[in-house]
Amino acid sequence: MLVIAYWLHLKMLAASVFDGIFQVIWPLFFATTAFLVYRQADDPAVMVYAGLGSAVMGIWSVVATTASSLLQRERWLGTLELLVAAPTRFALVLVPITTAMASLGLYSLTATLLWGWLLFGITVPVASPVLFVLAIAVSIFSIALIGFLLSVAVVRYRTAWAMGNMLEYPGWLVCGFLVPLTIFPTWVGWIAYALPPTWGMQAIRSAASGGSPWRDVLLCLGLGMVYGLVGALLSETVLRSARRHATLSLT
Amino acid sequence: MTSLRIFFIGGLISFRALFNWLSPWIYIPSLLVAPIFQILLFAYIGRSAGIESDTFFVIGNAVQYSAIPCLFAMANTVAGERYTQTLGIVLVTPARRIPLFLGRSLPVVVNGFVVSMFSLAVGSLLLDVSIPPSRWLPLALVVAVAAASCTGLGLVNAALGLRVRETAVLSNVLFGVLLVFCGVNVSLDALPDWMATVGRWLPLTHAIEAARELAAGAGLGSVAGLIGTEVALGIGYGAIGLLALRLLEVEGRRRATLEIQ
Fold first, then answer.
1. Domain around B167
2. Which of A45, A63, A227, B27 could be cross-linked to A147 through a Cys-Cys bond (beta carbons 3.0 to 4.6 Å apart)?
């Protein structure tokens, strides 16, 4: 059921050419700016760092901005009640949707790598292709689980899309996509290490450079599962509350 | 008298009705918190790359962020009316179009100014950027000019809204273009020549340059040329926007496309 739900939602989300193109173009503006800034440092290694980070940050963008409004969108479409009434756990309905959303970040990842290569001559060497793909897959899944938690955490917030948009920059800032964590104050590092994308990004960089990404992959996956578990518990609580107070439709 | 009423009262009412971001639940995260994180993101990228100062990034991003309220609010003058199915009613009125649309621009300029000044103040505090107190008044003038100039581009955006369904996407794309080309995070000297040339024809570029010079201690007189260019560009974009609104309105009536959803 999870696979079918994932595939169904992936096809529905990918149906909008306009949205798809935008999800590619939007991170490209920021990637281009980052490349232009880092280019002034005149260090090829720094450009590879920026190229890889810019490519992955699109996965965070697509989840942060769309998962927060997931339930609101179902509400507008009139399908939220049907999803809630489905004879399965609500978490199992939502996780495939946020995973499909995160998978669309692959468009952005591919486009940014191509963009960096074509316009800025950034070639990202991948020493261990299999581990590289594994690290990306685990990152996507973990980010999807954050998206799931986010979607249920803001269910009572009518304008949740604004919250999602607001989270885009902080994620880019603290997860090590474009800025090394070493230059932040210590307390920012603690926040960063509590977020799966930080470990996912480290795993991707390790796999690309030929190091062992296993520790980072496992931490990314483990933390993602914790977020997913919290989301599952929260979703049951939120649903019970919404049913008791008849506030599911928020109208 | 009627034109004045349409300009001031009509403009204010339509801004309150159409720019639904005025809700604090949207305004605070989108227009007060997000620009601070944009400033922090690029300031830290700059620190990581070892180029430019925090002041450079605070000023560039604070001034550029006025593009979000200015572009989105102006797009809503068309898209918002269409969404509430009142676009036809507005366009069937005999009201003169210049006060009608310029009136809608004035609150947008004020809002863009507030967002930029807030970002400038908070960004400076967070990154310990020191701008002398005597510099804030001239900076406020430049920020106001930048917001007005960007609202001129917003009028073009509003006109395109008569033919484009996804005005939010269009506004985001324009925001991205301004981010890359206007010397926000990379000075024009460091941009490829063709990008710097494009940037010089866009709003915000000259205002950002003027604001940086003012913060560095230059007098208002020494940046008068930059401010004048920014004003001229704003007027130019505004004129193109008003003309495009008129032409696309006529075209929309002829093709019956005003209510495209």
1. 2-255
2. A63
